[in-house]
Structures are given as C-alpha cells and as structure tokens.
Amino acid sequence: MSADEQGRPAVRIRPFVDADQAAARGLVLVGLGDRFGWVDETANPDLDDIGASYLTRGHVFVVAESGGEIVGTGALLTEGPGVGRLARLSVSGHHRRRGIGRALIDHLVAAARRRDFGQLLVETNDVWDDAIALYRSCGFVEIGRAGGEAHLALELR
Q1: Phi, psi for residue 108 in degrees, rounded to 5
Q2: Share of the chain above pLDDT 90, in %
Q3: Using 50, 70 and 90 to split pLDDT, how confident is the model at 8?
Q4: Is the pLDDT score of 5 beyond 60?
Q5: Which residue from 82, 41, 75, 27 is spatially nearest to 55, judged by alpha carbons?
Q6: How far is residue 74 from each of residues 2, 144, 147, measured CA to CA in Å?
Q7: Is 116 left (phi over 0), alpha (psi -120 to 50) or beta?
Q8: Among 51, 86, 146, 152, which one has the highest count of C-beta atoms within 10 angstroms of its own C-beta?
Q9: What are phi and psi of 69, to 5 degrees?
Q10: Among residues 84, 98, 89, 92, which one has the least CA distance to residue 156?
C-alpha cells in the first residue's frame, strides 16, 4: 500500500466483510458520540449485524481502510425505483479532513450510477455544517429542512 504526501498509509475503499463488523460498528457509534456528546447504542440496531441489515437486503456497505485499520464507512440503500440513499457515512475523528468522506461519497455515487439510480438522497443533522458543506461540494443540493435534519439530493441523470 502506498502512502500519501504526508507519509500516511493510503486509503482503500472496499466492500464490507463480516470480519469488519466490530470495527465498523464501533467507528459509527464513536462518530455519533462525537457529534451528540453521547450515544444510545440500542437506537442503532442496524449496526448490530451490518451484513444482515445491509448486504442481505441488496444494499451496499463499504469501509475505508488505511494501514489495516477501518477509518470510514458508508452505505448505499435502495430507497425506491431509481432512487438511492446514502447512509452511515462516518470517518474516524483522527482521519477527518483527509478527503476520506469525499472518497466514500464518490465511491457510493459511482455505485448508484451502476445501479441506474436517477436520484441520490441524503440527510444529516441540520446543524452539522461541515457535513452539509461536504455533500454540497459533491454536487448535492439542499431540498429542505425538517425535524432537525437537512435533506439533500443529487440528480444522476
């Protein structure tokens, strides 16, 4: 594996495998804790068995790996005919601001195009300005806010 300009191990995005379960779950929960100051692990049952929650249902779940460590996650869900949704985008606090979030989004957008989705949706907390800015920089347009969430969409056709 090659290194980036600062000598850090390069990041590789790959499909989730069962051996990633504990690390991927932990990374997402720590990220939620970073954002909210606490996390109720029981409020995220999809993370208890990522393979069953995502892969067996035909969704995509990927991890970003650097130096043998999982440093990011992301999912592409089928929302409806021709519509996908990004979910569980998370990057380890020590690896943020290195382009990993953008790389995950780009990877999942490419997967959405391969699935012939015409639109890709995402939602995030409406006060997470950095997340909203990242999605906008990737071409997403804000389509509304409600219930403390910002909703964004990317037209793929």
Answers
A1: -70, -35
A2: 81
A3: low
A4: no
A5: 75
A6: 23, 22, 23
A7: left
A8: 86
A9: -110, 140
A10: 84
Token pair for 68: 């043998």
Do the bridges between strand 141-146 and strand 11-15 make them parallel or antiparallel, or are there none, so unpaired?
unpaired
Q: Which among 70, 67, 20, 69 is positioned nearest to 47, based on CA atoms?
A: 20
Which two structure tokens, joined as six digits, stand for 43? Answer: 């409020």
Q: How far apart are CA 19 and CA 114, in angstroms?
A: 26
**Is 11-155 a CATH 3.60.21.10 domain?**
no
Q: With helix as H, strand as E and coil as C, how does 119-156 read?
A: EEEEEEECCCHHHHHHHHHCCCEEEEEECCEEEEEEEC
Write the pLDDT tens digit of every residue in 30-86. Answer: 988 877 888 888 889 999 999 999 999 999 999 999 999 999 999 999 999 999 999
Query: What is the C-alpha separation between 75 and 102, in angstroms, rounded?
Result: 13
The phi, psi pair for 11, rounded to 5°, reads: -105, 135
